[in-house]
Design a protein that fits this description.
Length: 757
């Protein structure tokens, strides 16, 4: 098996060796750009550049067209033209023999010339490849996993990469390809071919504001991630065993008196001795799209459970990515093959789990609720530990989010101790402690040069970090031989030695000597007032405190966090159940200072640290800085939080929560819901559920305009034959692209699961 680096880097190295200018020279130019059009240059993590007519496009660049807009691109060598319609995103990739458009989603009209071409042309999607010699056709890629290709002139071939099936498409024909491996050729009606975007009127009222330069992420983050008034959390205190690991956790708290954060509604469903999951799809690793083949066996014997994740990533050239299997040079990669190892359950006297941590809640969830270390899986693989004990009236729990972070200064850690007075007087007392010793420890730094990959223009070269003009040659800096310098580092076509106005990017943020921590503690008291066959009623209170020590970088600019602290009180809290079918909770909350309920939540790893690069300045914000960007430490609010969990005649289970927090100037609302069907009596359907979460918004019911606080998705399982099920899972959330604009992050997983008894 030949070693494969990321395709871009392979070509780059080869170009250096052979004197080629493949990456240095543009491969195409933008002819037109109207409305919302952004570029992401090779090596960058975000779409931070506004596209303009005349912009050069290099190998590895990506383009995104927003809801209102279009773009037209012409290739330099063969004069082929592609037109990109609204809501589209893809990247350019040239190799020695192939020119590819790797489309994530959207609609692209292609007029590919057959003359003066030295490479084959193809459209690649997560499930399909369209190969073209010279023709005119349209490609429409739906993020749910359905592709359509419609021919206008000439012939081309479409292959479904899952099943391997191929069809030829001619004028007036179409091919439909999907993630289940189906590929169909059919006639195309004349009105099915997408209209040329140049002939479609844009909504002029949208263009003036949306063609402005991107807003800094700090503005968006301060409003979406939480201004001082946006301080709410997630959901109800219900059993979520049927929910997906990450999202369902957001809706869960302990139905007991806060002892563990797990539901205590009944025994868990017996696990099968052996099952096998087969995953076929795509994944993006280090900005490169790979085809994915994964085997995920699970073994359950007595109290021991083992889950493995044996995955291979294949690029569009058919090469296997070896970074995950270079065990000889990096034995720690063996840890990544273990999805989890567990002993016992949380109801046992002793339990231990290693690997994936999902739905982690401490106490009543005031500090930590629904945390998952799997949010960025598989691109980021975290290895956590969760263990605890129950000995008589005393219980304890320990949680580590990612043991790999210890080499970078620490990880997220949680502790809980609880005590129940007696059976006759079942008053429960709990103490919780959560700390993140270094919030920067989650920033990836592949070359260990102390500069995180999100800032490092050369993330695989430890002696290089800045490339202001993006030409793949480093800026002059200390320790670099002047013969290797970029002679025009700012790209203004004036050699630096005679340029009196050289403007270079600032030295990026360094992990060396920089730390930012957060810690919190809480105490809780719960008491079951009465319980019978009809109704249960318990009361509780919880006091929480958060502290953010002051921290500043050496330059006092890149990172400067003032000291903050705050408290939150839930008093009173009431939980009740009726006939074991309806479970409700209600609590009144009081917040003072810099406190956020459920600060360590499901998305903590996503917003633990945010970055902003603007011009020559680079700044870093921790989560608390984003939340309290426009506030002092003197802030208070109060409001109600309620949740409900209902079993609908054993046909479905519905859970939801709603919170309303009010201060002198703002009112913030949060809404979470999930619906799970009981598929026992539904032929061929093995699972079916959907969920929606949106916190800290003026209107969480504005479904057409999502925010950074929005998470939604569904999961459906279909029985192909006895012991074999096809599982389709979709998840969508939103993240700032570094320019102040929200972009959807859509994750689709399709697996064939095999069960053996």
């Amino acid at each position: 098996m030949r070693k494969n680096l990321a395709p871009y880097y392979v070509v780059f190295v080869l170009s250096i060796i052979n004197g080629s200018r493949l990456f240095a020279e543009p491969i195409a130019h933008i002819m037109k750009a109207e409305g919302i059009v952004y570029l992401k240059r090779l090596g960058m993590d975000t779409f931070s550049e506004v596209a303009e007519a005349g912009n050069a496009l290099n190998n590895g660049d990506a383009i995104k067209v927003g809801e209102y807009g279009y773009a037209a691109v012409i290739f330099i060598d063969d004069r082929s033209v592609i037109k990109i319609k609204n809501d589209s995103q893809f990247e350019f990739m040239d190799t020695k023999n192939t020119r590819s458009l790797n489309i994530e989603f959207g609609t692209v009209l292609n007029k590919i010339e057959s003359e003066n071409r030295s490479r084959s042309f193809r459209i690649q999607t997560p499930v399909s490849v369209a190969s073209v010699k010279g023709t005119e056709f349209a490609a429409m890629v739906d993020p749910i996993g359905v592709d359509q290709f419609i021919g206008k002139e000439g012939q081309f071939e479409v292959m479904n990469t899952i099943s391997g099936e191929t069809v030829n498409v001619g004028p007036g024909q179409k091919a439909v390809s999907n993630t289940t491996g189906n590929l169909m050729q059919a006639p195309a009606a004349p009105n099915e071919y997408p209209q040329d975007p140049e002939t479609e009127p844009l909504r002029d009222e949208q263009l003036p504001s949306e063609r402005e330069s991107p807003k800094p992420s700090s503005e968006s983050t301060g409003q979406q991630q939480g201004t001082p008034s946006q301080l709410e959390e997630t959901g109800p205190n219900t059993d979520t065993s049927s929910l997906p690991s990450e999202e369902g956790a957001e809706l869960s708290q302990s139905t007991s008196s806060g002892s563990s954060g797990e539901s205590g509604s009944g025994p868990s469903i017996p696990k099968k001795p052996f099952s096998m999951g087969l995953g076929i799809g795509s994944a993006t690793m280090d900005g490169v799209l790979y085809n994915q083949l994964a085997l995920r066996p699970e073994i359950n014997l007595w109290k021991i459970g083992i889950g493995l994740d044996l995955v291979v990533y294949i690029d569009n050239e058919g090469n296997i990515r070896t970074e995950e299997w270079d065990i000889e040079n990096d034995p720690s990669l063996l840890l990544d093959k273990v999805l989890y190892i567990r002993y016992g359950e949380k109801s046992d006297p002793l339990w231990v789990k290693y690997g994936s941590i999902e739905g982690m809640t401490l106490g009543y969830g005031g500090l930590m609720q629904g945390y998952s270390n799997m949010m960025e899986f598989p691109s980021v693989r975290r290895v956590g530990v969760n263990t605890g004990f129950n000995i008589g009236p005393i219980g304890g729990e320990l949680f580590l989010a990612n043991i790999k972070d210890y080499s970078r200064g620490g990880t997220l850690l949680g502790l809980r101790a609880n005590y129940t007075v007696s059976e006759d007087f079942p008053l429960s007392l709990g103490v919780n402690f959560v700390t993140d010793a270094n919030m920067f420890s989650g920033l990836k730094d592949r070359d260990d040069d102390s500069y995180p990959d999100i800032f490092d223009d050369f993330p695989d070269s430890s002696g290089l970090w800045n490339d202001t003009d993006g030409d793949f040659f480093p800026d002059p800096h200390e320790g670099l031989d002047s013969s290797s310098w970029d002679i025009d580092a700012d790209g203004d076509n004036i050699v630096d030695t005679v340029d009196d106005n050289v403007v270079l990017k600032a030295t990026p943020f360094s992990l060396q000597g920089n730390k930012a921590g957060v810690s919190g503690w809480s105490v809780d008291i719960g008491y079951p007032v009465f319980s019978n066959n009809i109704i249960d009623l318990s009361i509780y209170t919880e006091f929480n405190s958060l502290s953010f020590p002051a921290s500043v970088s050496e330059d006092s600019i890149t990172f400067n966090r003032p000291e903050r602290s705050g408290t939150g009180l839930s008093l009173p809290g009431i939980r009740s159940s009726l006939f074991g079918l309806l479970h409700v909770s209600l609590e009144y909350r009081i917040i003072n200072g810099s406190y956020i309920p459920q600060f360590f939540d499901q998305a903590y790893d996503l917003n633990r640290v945010v970055s902003l690069s603007k011009g020559t300045e680079t700044t870093i914000w921790t989560k608390d800085m984003s939340v309290f960007a426009d506030s002092s430490n003197e802030w208070s609010s109060s409001g109600l939080f309620g949740s409900a969990n209902m079993n609908l005649l054993n046909l479905a289970n519905f859970i939801s929560s709603y919170a309303r927090m009010v201060n002198d100037t703002d009112t913030l609302n949060s809404f979470n819901a999930a619906l799970t069907l009981n598929t026992d009596n539904i032929p061929k359907l093995t699972s079916a559920m959907a969920y929606y979460q949106r916190n800290n918004d003026d209107n969480p019911f504005d479904f057409e305009n999502p925010s950074e606080n929005t998470v939604m998705g569904y999961k459906v399982g279909y029985e192909l034959s006895k012991g074999v099920s096809l599982i389709w899972e979709y998840r969508e959330f939103y993240r700032d692209d570094g320019t102040g604009n929200l972009v959807p992050v859509k994750q689709t997983t399709i697996e064939t699961a095999f069960s053996f008894f």
